[in-house]
Design a protein that fits this description.
The structure is a homodimer. Chain A is α+β, with helices and mostly antiparallel strands. The first copy, chain A, has a single domain, classed as Aminopeptidase (3-Layer(aba) Sandwich). In chain A, 32% of the residues lie in helices and 33% in strands. Chain A has five helices and six strands. Chain A has a five-stranded mixed sheet with strand order 1-2-3-4-5. In chain A, helix 4 links the parallel strand 4 and strand 5. Chains A and B meet through helix 1, helix 2, strand 3, helix 3 and strand 4 of A and helix 1, helix 2, strand 3, helix 3 and strand 4 of B. Strand 6 of chain A pairs antiparallel with strand 6 of chain B, so a sheet runs across the interface. Chains A, B: GO terms for molecular function: acyltransferase activity, transferring groups other than amino-acyl groups. Chains A, B: Keywords: Acyltransferase, Transferase.
């Protein structure tokens, strides 16, 4: 297997990240590569927030995976800090390679390093393969995830 | 109806907030009022993070409800900022009073004011009354919520 590195995303990764977000049955309707402006603005907000970790998986200089890890302090569970994983995407060429597992394991390890006591994420009810994947990694589907689009 | 105000939590609200977190079938096992230290430390972290909004509902000087709103920037959905609602609790004396609706409506309005395009939350699968409550407020149970305890 060639060299894989999980590292913080840089602005030059944005086109590859957005391409992965768009290359998805649900993401295809939501993303647009035509205008990079809103993505650049969002990247700037992420970069200045110490509780945000947007990372990419880099294989031999190619951006082949991404996820966003958010660290959330809180009072509940005796003041437990938790983390939330969002926007997990694996390049089509890399699916089945174990890269998804490596990315989630990175996020779990980083959460532990930062003192989190809980890692959580939501997955669209239609993504049944993803549900099995997270259960294999020890996650429990204990909650319903509600969304309200504004 | 007496005067209700939704306002940022202050350190003096911590005992009342923790009491509400504990007065719950799931929370009872997770919280402990014996030692305030971890709650005070978590409160300090929340207070210094501009993307965290821990609020209480105050009725005539009594702390009768709480929730935590987190603002999360991100690249997906064309750089959409989203918000996450956590740790919603209503004092036992106030259940059925419409206070839950007022708190969630506050969170949705504040999310809109901050430019969020999505509000999300998770609810334990056992809380079927809460699920109906969120659906009545326009939320869609489109996701499964996965948790991993560290």
């Amino acid at each position: 297997m060639s060299d894989l590195r999980i590292r913080p995303a840089s602005p030059s990764d944005i086109p590859a990240i957005v391409a992965m977000l768009a290359d998805d049955p649900l993401g295809a309707q939501r993303e647009s590569l035509d205008d990079p402006t809103p993505y650049l603005a969002a990247f700037a907000r992420l970069a200045e927030d110490p509780n945000q970790h947007l990372v990419v998986a880099d294989r031999d200089g190619r951006t082949v995976g991404t996820l966003q890890l958010t660290i959330i302090p809180g009072l509940s569970r005796r003041g437990a800090t938790r983390s939330i994983i969002e926007a997990v995407r694996i390049h089509a060429d890399e699916r089945g390679s174990g890269l998804g597992t490596q990315l989630i394991e990175w996020a779990v390890e980083e959460s532990r390093r930062q003192g989190c006591r809980l890692v959580q994420l939501t997955s669209d009810v239609s993504r049944t393969d993803a549900h099995r994947f997270y259960e294999r990694l020890g996650f429990e589907a204990s909650h319903l995830g509600f969304k309200l689009v504004l």
